[in-house]
Amino acid sequence: MMVKSTRSDERVTPSMAILNGLAKDGGLYVFESIPKIDIKQLTNASYTDVAKVVFGLLLDDFSQERLNDIIDQTYNSNLFHPAPITMTHHKNHSYLNLYHGETLAFKDMALSILPKLIQEAKQINGIDKPSIVLTATSGDTGSAALAGFQQNKDDYVFVLYPTQGVSSFQEKQMNQLQNDQCTVYAIDGNFDDCQTIVKTLFQSITLTNTTLVSANSINIGRLVPQITYYVYAYTKLVQDHVIPQLEPIDVVVPTGNFGNIYAAYIAKQMGVPFDTLTIASNTNNVLHDFFQTGSYTIKRPLYKTISPSMDIIISSNLERYLYTLFNHDASALQQAMTTLQSTGELHIDVVKHQTTFDSGMATEQETLQTIKDTFLNQGTVIDPHTAVGTYVYHHTPHNHHTIIVATASPFKFIDAMEDALDIEPSGDLQSRLQRFAGHVHIPFPARINHIASYTLEQKQILTKDEAMTIIRQKVGIIDEN
Ligand SMILES: *Cc1c(COP(=O)(O)O)cnc(C)c1O
């Protein structure tokens, strides 16, 4: 099967799409045809069994044997504890907990395996060069990429994050993961600025001895692992006797870059019985507006919220869905994207008539209140992103059992958790995290010990231009050696 650009007829193999990240024309890669999966056959399958089927169907120029090895090495290892995913069932909804990886957010599900997929993709294409990974982050991608790529000893990682736009825990976590080959930069700007720097560098740097790689969610190497957990989550609901086989369900996803929910959309097209997919936005509700009105307007202020990983205006992966809305007409989409760039707006008529997606949003106050209510009424502790999803779940119609995607551990967002649960924020990070664990009666995750006790050296904050110059220089030196 080939993978195609959203903006032209450019076609490449899945392994080349993983290596390229973006198409040469600036478009995103999409699967030309979506294979069907036999969900009934998978009812008693393990997580790795499901992964082997999904990866095998979509990455069909990889050998099944190598995929199986890579999948076992990732999801059957101590990278995930206690299991790749868990689910918590309530009366009409279940949480799909995706934060059991090394950096405690759902990004680990894909970024723990992406480095191995990249190695394998290089083998397949006879490329014998180290990678330079360049990535913008609103917090969680950065640490997950740093943790994931430490496996590839020859590769280099550069992470850019908005200095004011991540939680203190996220900032410590990223800085703590630095070493000779992995560098983190605090940028004086917001996430969209970081993303712009990365895009500009991608388009302007040419390398001879190394290759540039994207760890952002535009890479189909991130999409495939994310499809996997949706397929597995459905089979788990059947296994756990929450729903009968083939019963439709709804899914609510806290959404920023449209990566996670797009994976649910592909799972649905593969035949998983999903009915409505609900986008949950925070105050940065550009996607909610789009799905309600058909107008995508990116000239608006970016608010800093307590769910920072969704503080995004330019939602990169939306282009993949727009391609569907444009009936796969790449040149019409190319034109629309040019208009979007110059005017900051895009209008689509069909959005309100389509039935797959619904959307909602939660304000900061509603998010805090939801954390509190969910804890007091159900004893369930959810992070602010998951709380946005939970609020939207309660305020949108659902005719089926619903999966709410829990995207991060509450420990990563201690400020908001203390605020929501009226816990006094005193002492250092270590003692605050411990007090919080005691308050909510959940065990202190061993993997955060080293972050809690880490002191951030004084950090250097770079302007966009400074970052651009420094990274260009460093990449140049790496490439020469
Ligand atoms: C990245 C992230 C999101 C948003 O996911 P998208 O794929 O960008 O829509 C939501 N919650 C958390 C905790 C995240 O890290």
TrEMBL record:
UniProt keyword list: Lyase, Pyridoxal phosphate
UniProt KW Lyase keyword: yes
EC number: 4.2.3.1
Domain Tryptophan synthase beta chain-like PALP residues, every copy: 100-388
Enzyme class: lyase
Cofactor(s) listed: pyridoxal 5'-phosphate
Pfam families: PALP, Thr_synth_N
GO CC field: cytoplasm
Residues modified as N6-(pyridoxal phosphate)lysine: 107
Membrane spanning stretches: none
GO annotation terms (biological process): threonine biosynthetic process
One MF term in the entry's GO annotations: threonine synthase activity
Threonine synthase N-terminal domain location: 5-75
Stored InterPro entries: Thr_synth_N, Thr_synth_N_sf, Thr_synthase-like, TrpB-like_PALP, TrpB-like_PALP_sf
PANTHER family: THREONINE SYNTHASE-LIKE 1
Membership in a protein family: Belongs to the threonine synthase family.
This protein's name: Threonine synthase
Protein source organism: Candidatus Xianfuyuplasma coldseepsis
